[in-house]
Write a structure and sequence with these properties.
Elements lengths: L1 H9 L3 H18 L7 H28 L2 H34 L1
Helix pairs in contact: 2-4, 3-4
Length: 103
């Protein structure tokens, strides 16, 4: 315990830097403009974000009911990233499916 406090005081902030890097990267990927940005892409973006928030909170409710102690803390840490991950996956999947249907 004392070693962890000394390590933190000495400047071991790698977890924080990694988390910030992941957040910034996911935000850049999530909200970067598409080459052909139009109303349909905006609609897909909004629907994907709505579904991501809904799925994220359903997973959070299930985790609250079924997971306890430190495992729940780990779920909460991963839960910070799931909204953006679900959004990115669904948004780019729908864009891929749309481009495939047009070709």
């Amino acid at each position: 315990m004392v070693g962890q406090q000394i390590g933190r005081a000495m400047g071991d902030y790698s977890d924080e830097f990694i988390s910030i890097g992941i957040f910034v990267g996911l935000l850049l990927v999530s909200f970067s403009r598409e080459k052909d940005e139009d109303e349909y892409i905006s609609k897909i973006r909004l629907e994907s974000l709505q579904l991501a928030v809904l799925v994220n909170y359903v997973l959070l409710i299930l985790a609250t009911v079924f997971i306890y102690d430190m495992a729940y803390f780990n779920v909460m840490i991963y839960n910070m990233f799931t909204i953006l991950l679900i959004f990115i996956i669904r948004f780019h999947f729908l864009l891929y499916r749309q481009k495939k249907s047009l070709a």
